[in-house]
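Notebook B, p. 112. Complex prediction, attempt 2.
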Amino acid sequence: MIRRHMIETLVVFSFIVSAALPCSVGAEPQGKLILFHAGSLSMPFEAMEKAFEAAIPKVDVLREPSGSQKAARKVSELNKPCDIMASADYQVIDRLLIPDFADWNVRFATNQIVLSYTDKSKFSKDITADNWYEVLQRKGVSWGHSDPNLDPCGYRSLMVLQLAETYYKQPGLYNKLIAKRPKENIRPKEVDLISLLQTGNMDYAWEYLSVAVQHGLKYIALPDEINLGNYQHDDLYAQAVVRVTGKEPGTFMDIKGNSCTYGVTLIKCAPNREAAIAFLTYMLKPDGGLKVLKDMGQPPFVPCRVPTEEMKARLPVELKGLVEVKK
Amino acid sequence: MEKREPFFWLTISCGVIVMAFILLPLMDMVTAPSLSMLKETLKDRDVVRSIWLSMYTSGSAALISFVFGTPLAYLLARTHFKGKRWVESIIDLPIVIPHPVVGIAILSVAGRNHWIGQMLGDLGIRIMGSVTGIITVLTFVGLPFYINTVKAGFEGIPPRLEKVSRSLGASMSSTFFRITFPLAWRSMVIGLIMCMARAISEFGAVVIVAYHPMIAPVMIYERFEAYGLKYSQPVAVWLVLVCLCLFLALRILTLRRAREI
């Protein structure tokens, strides 16, 4: 009789404990974790996937890289199951996912635009941070960028060209450069340009710094005033405005320049919320995912940031300690 | 009434399942856009241009396959030589290689880092981002379908007929054009249809070689990413309708002539 009592007490006790500590022993995350992310995050996320799966082997991380807009549309329009979505422009999450598909948006890393090339590119020996805009106009030089209508890296590349016009005091530079770039040199995503560089079909391509570092490309780093990498220059960046296609064919909208800031969010109807939170906890830790990003040329925010107290309140408990409120 | 065997019902039910499997998702897609939306899309010059470009490039790929593939198919159907299996396997390679790999492979040959690319560059021929590039890719992926279909067609013609012709003094070429070709032309039309159909649907390899100018599948992708499903579906519907009409017409034509023979 006493023994039965003991067992009952134990059962009740363990029930209370496991309810109070949802991520403790009893509820180890497991199963598939679906992650949609920007193409430029492919390599750091691959490294994070390996580290995370080594720590929690029961979780199988399934990553789907694509343009950030497409990743958002896969959730909002195709209703594809997804747990976590990481975008190369945190504004994509604000625009397409909040409030229907996500509650919050954590900014976790930065990047900058560089002009990448290989040692076989034409004039690769002459090009510097001071004469690149002149080299791009030389005869026979072929350069390109990704599609501004589909990929944040695309409109950001154009913004760099606009900012360069003022910075280098070269009136009309933007139009001159665009006139030198045939439409055929545009590709859907920035990573699509790499194979063109490496096969000698293109000499120079506008890329994220991280992508250039990860693929071992040579690159010209540009001054902070035009590289969209330093958010302290956001006022300056806002002077660049690129017109991209709007919500339906024939309509357009203007996008103002801002620093390259990556955002991540948990999808509301995530099929595996538990594993998603475990992954985010690892990813947003300074010695976890943020370190991986740093090693791969993508300077992280330590700690990560949300814009308002109100948004911080909507974060899962486990993540609240890992972010600060900062505009 | 004659009693049907269970096997008969098995064939019927499998047939229904296959039809439903193909038609259900397609019906859903075709009926999703409204009529006004379809009309609106057809007024969009870019859409019409991309569908036309798709037809034009895949048609060209089919014609190139016809010119270069027919003699090879004949050779494979009529002769046995060492390494024939190898040649046949190589012809099938484009079917199994992942599409983006095809695109990258073609680009690496066409780039300045390769002697072929340098030669093409000197001649002023550009593969990247050009109609030439699109046709090159589509021929690459479509060729096996043409050759395999036509080879089977040639194999169906008794060699006896050719031997009679040769023994009566006709040359190899005149035997081919006067005996074999008239008997095999139907398989060639089917080969052209197969090749063109395969080429029209290609996306993965083309988008790597040429994003602009846009063929219809690339435009469907671009529309989906930029504007969402609502604006990509009508383009897809038009492409499916145009292809359906074209292939139906070709099939009807070839079948009618076959009955006359």
